[in-house]
Amino acid sequence: MTDARALADVSPIDLEAVSSRPMAVLSVRQLMWRKFRRNRLAMFGLVVLIIMYGLAALAGFVAPYGVRQTHAEFPRTAPTVIHFVDADGKFHWQPFVYGMTRAMDPKTFTLASKEDTSARYPIQLFIHGTPYNILGVLNSDVHLFGVEAPGKLFLLGTDTTGRDLFSRILYGSQVSLTVGLFGVVLALVIGASVGIVSGYYGGWLDEIVQRIIEMTLAFPQIPLWLALATLVPPTWSSVQVYFAISIVLSVLTWGALARQVRAMVLSLKTSDFVRAASYANASPVRIMYRHLLPSTLSHILVIATLTIPSMIIGETALSFLGLGIRAPMTSWGVLLNEAQSVQVILQLPWLLSPAAFVVLTIISFNFVGDGMRDAADPFSR
Amino acid sequence: MIRYIGKRLALMVPTLILIMAVGFGIMQLPATDFVDQYVLKQAAIGNTGMMDQAKNLKAEFGLDRPAPERFVLWVSNFVKGDFGISFSDLRPVGAVIMERLPATLAVSFLAFLLSWGVGIPLGVYSATHQYSAGDIGLTIFAFVGVGMPDFLLAIVLLVVAFAATGHVFLGLSSPEFVNQPWTLAKILDFLSYAWLSVIAVAFTGTALIMRVTRNNMLEELGKNYVVTLRAKGLPERVIIWKHVFRNALHPLVSIFGQVLAFLINGFAITSIVLNLPTIQTIYLQATLRQDVFLASTILVMIAFTVVVGNLISDVLLAWIDPRIRYD
Fold first, then answer.
1. Strands B85-86 and B91-92
2. A61 within 8 A of A130, measured Cβ to Cβ
3. Which of A14, B50, B77, B271 is deepest in the core (most CB within 10 A)?
4. Shared-domain flag, residues A137 and A194
5. pTM of the predicted model, to two decimals?
6. Does B148 touch chain A (CB under 8 A)?
7. Same domain, A107 and A186
């Protein structure tokens, strides 16, 4: 693939055009972006992630209902069907939903929701509904879409207590998508500082740090996460639990990062610009902070991006087992926790839909990370 | 080479002791211990008499002594093969683990075989048929495999299997075989159950191996010696398997340890979800109950597997690639 494309890129150069045109100079950053942009999978991942984080930030606006809003009359309701053609066979440009009635099924004696074709509720944009707050600054009650009050719009159905799953997934993404970020930032700060210091000073300090890192790498990750997560006291508030879980997730990750940063620092240490800085009497702290850190930064970011997926899986797994994020806070793992038994899933298969969000996010992070890894060295082919 | 292995083995000892210390230390962090928890639980069901016995119980379990002293005692017994007793079972930890070891090893081994046995051929196929429909399908499979947490896959498989057969494949054998000795019938029954857990556990590893094989094969296939071999008129089968594949094998050996870690990680939560009779399932229970010796011993055993896996991976790499030098 690379060969064919490289051949296609090398078109005969029109020397006159080149010399008459003002020379365009691209910075390394621009070169990286060009290379990244050419990777279609990476761009796909980036777009998905931007949408995901956008939805998380604007959860209140996009979600038709509030995170704890229960529709007591409609527990265990299947996703609402969106219609274009009404019962009389008439086509409507504006999609609509029918009202729902609950009735006892005469055969199974269970309550089931039925569409009531007499009441038609068109789906409207910018409709007033449950008040919400965006990022702690903006208060509003305008929702991106929804239906008029007696009608219900459950895009992904409701859970056992009648809460709209789609809205809860959006609110849950606020936790699931950030708990890993926070953990990665922690791991980055620890890993990068340890790696740079250990690589720069070398000697016995490096030797000891390397042995410690080797030990952390030998630790079985998930079992240790389980053990640490059980330590979080049940009396802690949601916010405390949130930060505790992200600390747990970063406990082992910094080691791998420190190791890679150290390897880069070892090769950079003898390069001319570092020597020049030290001959100019720059202090070790300045050399590490102003010269070594920026040179390793692109690499650090790549590792960070590739680490986030494992943290998201970690949070999902811990919450799924009831050891991570706890109610009233919501995350994708917490939502999946309801879908633990086969019987429940067979009756309410839509409860598994948070899994699709988990998988899509993780795949996107992997795509973006791979693309960044290739782009981090824009001079290679 | 022998010196290198010796050095690595020597380094394993402090690593494992540190892991023991951390595993043990984590259990000491909460203010309560196993006996406090037990007494509280008994009191909750109305058995307040246990409160008076708490002190005796603690003395019996040695919980009245300071933690460092208990740790040293545990480690010195550990070396002699005595792993302590499980508080909740009142049996030696060794016996509790041995009971679950066959199933644990069987599923891990099968999953390990499956991930390599399926991952490598698929990766080779993917590389030799680049951009064909099969390759694209396998690529999608690999990305989903890496993105899908194993325990979610386990649930999906469970539901699909139920919908297809009307049978819930929880655990590792039919109810009537649970406490039976290992006879041929039980082994057959085990296999009819285990496939689900094995697939769930092996999925991520298979996807990873497939991707790495594909990338290595593609890199090797682009080299000049392949052109030479083709020009000599060698059959494609010989070129792929005898020449290209052998050269593409090195990076695969180096991810040996990583795949092992994947399996262990995936296995931990999948076991709990599928309620498999493995050591990972009792590990979680033991951690929750602060059953110190049981939990720490299992943690050390798992860590030991990872450490040995990494060692094997490095030694194998040096063995198949003489260019690698260790000092």
1. antiparallel
2. no
3. B271
4. no
5. 0.82
6. yes
7. no
